[in-house]
Specification:
- It is a single chain.
- By secondary structure, the chain is mainly alpha-helical.
- It folds into two domains: 91 residues, Cytochrome Bc1 Complex, Chain D, domain 2, CATH 1.10.760; 91 residues, Cytochrome c-like domain (Cytochrome Bc1 Complex, Chain D, domain 2), CATH 1.10.760.10.
- Helix content is 40%, strand content 2%.
- The chain has nine helices and two strands.
- Strands 1-2 form a two-stranded antiparallel ribbon.
- The structure holds heme C (2 copies).
Length: 219
């Protein structure tokens, strides 16, 4: 009876445009694997959090992903190892959609926000700054031990325990990256990445460095 009331009500409310747009992700059952609501803190999910998708992703990348899902965490998602890697027959591929539906879902995801960020410049680094940050990415902080990125020859290299950063410049918002590097606790309660104490200048340079990583630069 309770469910019926909810169905009737949601049908009614979906006449209003805001709630109609919040409905597509629900209709497609995305919430069975992804957190779409900041309030859902009790449940554990088999896919990454999406309740701050509008802070984190670039809309064009979201549409592309939903048309043609790609592996971002080559080591598997922590709660769902092997997913999308095709190494388990029982794992179906990630749902994918035709253009129009993918765009509508991307727009809905862009509406899911939890913070208001300050804006960070995305201007590319100079050659010298880039070399300096690249050194720190590989040596000082050893980001590369957990994250795939591109070396100077345009080859993919790096560890697989963290999400791939090879396409970070097309996938992530610069503001979110800076936020993640300074206050990851906004987005995750028990992060698996070390919390670095970077000075503000280095932090922005790291952000700009990551924004220069794009898959079209793979050689
Ligand atoms: C069976 C579980 C499952 C369902 C259902 C599912 N996803 Fe996913 N999704 C995943 C997993 C696992 C990943 C992580 C893939 C990776 O990192 O390689 C993922 C990744 C994503 C990403 C990239 C997120 C990131 O942080 O990189 C987006 C966006 C996404 N899914 C959207 C959706 C949408 C929209 C729906 C509903 C149509 C949906 N997913 C349904 C399991 C699922
Ligand atoms: C010990 C492994 C490890 C190291 C070292 C590491 N990371 Fe991470 N990183 C992770 C993991 C795991 C995640 C996924 C979030 C989580 O589980 O907390 C992540 C997430 C990220 C994200 C967000 C990506 C996404 O799609 O969600 C960025 C950006 C990032 N790391 C950048 C860096 C940078 C820059 C450094 C070096 C200064 C670094 N990481 C060092 C493990 C690591």
């Amino acid at each position: 009876m309770k469910t019926l009331t909810i169905i009737i009500f949601s049908g009614f409310f979906s006449l209003s445009s805001t709630l109609a747009s919040a409905g597509l992700l629900e209709d497609k059952n995305c919430g069975s694997c992804h957190r779409l609501n900041a309030e859902e803190t009790e449940k554990s999910f088999t896919g990454p959090n999406l309740h701050y998708a509008g802070n984190k992703f670039q809309p064009k990348w979201l549409s592309e992903f939903l048309k043609n899902p790609e592996i971002i965490r080559p080591g598997g998602f922590i709660n769902n190892p092997g997913f999308l890697k095709g190494d388990s027959e029982s794992q179906p591929p990630h749902p994918s959609f035709p253009e129009e539906e993918a765009n509508a879902m991307a727009a809905e995801l862009m509406g899911l926000k939890i913070t208001k960020q300050t804006s960070v410049t995305t201007e590319p680094l100079s050659k010298g700054q880039r070399a300096k940050i690249k050194y720190q990415f590989e040596r000082t902080f050893s980001c590369i031990s957990c994250h795939q990125s591109l070396n100077l020859a345009g080859k993919v290299r790096g560890g697989i325990s963290g999400p791939s950063l090879v396409n970070a410049g097309n996938r992530l918002q610069a503001d979110w990256v800076a936020d993640w590097l300074s206050t990851p606790e906004t987005y995750t309660r028990k992060g698996r990445m070390p919390h670095y104490k970077m000075d503000p200048v280095t932090l922005i340079q790291f952000t700009r460095f990551l924004m220069m990583l794009k898959k079209e630069n793979i050689k």
